[in-house]
Amino acid sequence: MYETKLKSMGLKLPPVPKPVAAYVPAVMVDKYIYTSGQLPLVEGNLEYQGDGREPGQC
After folding, report:
1. How far is CA 32 from the centre of its chain?
2. pTM higher than 0.90
3. What are the pLDDT tens digits along the chain (58 aa)?
């Protein structure tokens, strides 16, 4: 199962965060999952944050 593979890679899935608004966090269409309003939270803390630059200025 995927749990064994993740563990062998040293990865841990975080718990699903509580919603902060009334929206559908993800919709599956065919084999794709489209997400909206999801933040990269790890154990309740924002793991990654942009540096303030606009796209294309990197």
Report:
1. 15
2. no
3. 788 888 899 988 888 877 677 677 789 999 999 987 777 888 888 887 777 776 666 5
